[in-house]
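Long-time lurker. I teach an intro course on protein structure, and each term I like to show students one example going from raw sequence to a predicted 3D structure in token notation. This year I'd like something fresh instead of my usual example. Would anyone be willing to generate the tokens for the chain below so I can use it in lecture? Attribution to the forum is fine with me.
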Amino acid sequence: MVNCCGLVTVKNEPVPLKSIAVEVSVQGHVATVSSTLQYENQEESPLEAIFVFPLPGEAAVCRFSAKIGQTEVVAEVQEKQKAQEQYDDSLSSGQQAFLLEESDDSPDVFKLSVGSLPPGEKASVSLDYVTELAVQADEGLTLCLPAVLNPRYQPQGSLMGDPVVMLSLYPEFPNDVMSSMTSHAEFLFVVDCSGSMERPIHYGPGAQDRISSARDTLLLLLKSLPMGCYFNIIGFGNIYKSFFPKSVEYSQKTMDEALQKVKGMRADLGGTKILKPLRHIYSQPCLPDQPRQLFLFTDGEVWNTKEVLDLVKRNAGSHRCFSFGIGEGASSALISGVAKQGGGHAQFITGQDKMQPKVMQSLRFALQPAVVDISVKWNVPKGVSVTPLSPAIRVLFQGQRALLYAQLTGESSGATEGSVTVKYSLAEQPVENQLSFSLKPAEDTGLTVHRLGSRTLIRSLEMEEREGDGEKEGVKEKVVELSVQSGVSSAFTAFIAVHKGDREVVQGPMLHRQVPTPSVCVSIKHSMLVCDSSINRNLDVMSMTLEALELLLLNCDQDSYKEFDCPAPASKPVRDPLLQLISLQKASGSWVLGAALAEVLGKTEEEVAKPKPAPVDQEVWATVLALVWLYGFKMEAQEEWQFLAMKAVSWIQAQKAASVSECVQAGLPGAERHPGALRGSRCLSSLSPPQSCYSTWGQIYMQTLPAPGPLQATWLS
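-- Reply from a regular --
Happy to contribute to a lecture. Here you go:
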């Protein structure tokens, strides 16, 4: 597969891709994308244009056609080598031909060949695909579109002829389980330091370069880790470098040492060679009672995606992998694939996105108790059978959707409903969800779910074939058969269209051109469509530690915060005051009273120290002031600092300070005017220390989740 770059014609004119039109239709968690590319040969010789472009890694390409003049040629799916031979033969005989094929290295990269366009000729190429939409941290759905970019009847007894059901599992874990988030883990932060990380995340105003954003994110992560865990940081490019020879226990000393090294991280390690650091990590034994959590940050500019995914899958039992694609060009197949194979979660940072909130969401997932013993049981009437199209579910996270596809064959004599039961164990507690569904689709909405189900099965079979080094008999043939039957592309097939109109053979030597690939990101806000749930969402067990703090801080009007000055924007770039405050926090969760803290608060050191109640320790006073500032000026970024705020609350409680409410009122003048604040102050003063800041946080996070039910069944037949 060729990696294209911007080229011009022999006359130094733009390549012949004239325009692109994209239509997107969203239904539930699924998007249907139709793209049309307009070509024109403005040269004096016949032309072959090569266009290499990315698609979402989860996309199922299901239709490809070309229009020359008023004649439309619809491509058919063939075995790849056969399609390539037919394309070459067509060009040799002077016919116009079009070939669409998937990369051998990465399932989210395609090559479109537009062959034998005569001088002055125009051609319009159309591409359709369907894809699942991931749930984002803000409960929206995001679809990234490259700048390229229906149904056929099938007889019963085939995948495309039988009903297909899509099960959407959106788990809600019990409150008492979610309140016991672990503080024991080994965190490995693997950061891309290749030259491409020097590029900006986006090309709008105020854009950070990728490596700078990664450094800021590491600062936030290091300040948010729980005491008692272990960690290490590994930068990679052509080589890899570890901060420590092996993972070290999280403490003030190791945190400070790591932060000093983070400041020196640069995008200076050459290419993006991700296999070596991963092999090194997997060669190291896991620490006892410290589950390994791998965080991978990369712009995803690699071409051996399938080799990376196979390595992660072989080691899936030793860790959970959380991946972050930085910038517009990150490979969705790589980022989503390593998270899927590593039992973790994938995030993409594109457009104006900030990396930190998404990383904090993944840190929450990493600290959730692992879900084990997941089983799915389909209950259908006699005469109906179920064939799963998806691999078994290996991982579930609170607030994140998991999808399963299944084919139903046969007919029931009388019953009209079936059900599915999902069971799993969470923190040694059994959990069960059940959903009933109709065996008859409510309406005919096309073959979208059939194609997504086919794509899921095709990807599973392709990985099975790679694991057997191509020696597993019949797997490749099964992929080809399924791809041709469903009209969904695969690694072993390609779309081929040949225009055999009544025209003269194209004469003259044919030129070869590469077409550059721009990209665009579209964010789609979409409501969640889920079934009703009987699960009780009354969360009366919230920790009073954080409740008291929020009563004190959130019930106060903005006049209460006038004692602190939020730094005014400067004419030249300055460091984010939030990051400044975060950088001053100690590993234990406290802040030290000093000039640096006063600067963030917009005060002199004397002005900050003067209101301190006499019996209150300086470090307790400084920590209360930092929390007051966060709640007063940075509520919009609460998802970023919630972990470190909980560490601070836990630390304050552990000091058994007798005048916490007096501290808060002294640090926040005007709070006494609010009954809620006084009530919260009394609660805070009387509470005993919580078991851990992470148990407190777990209950808070439960309240911020959307309110969907756990299961949803979607029919599109």
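Some talking points for your students: The mean pLDDT is 76. The CA atoms of residues 95 and 502 lie 10 Å apart.
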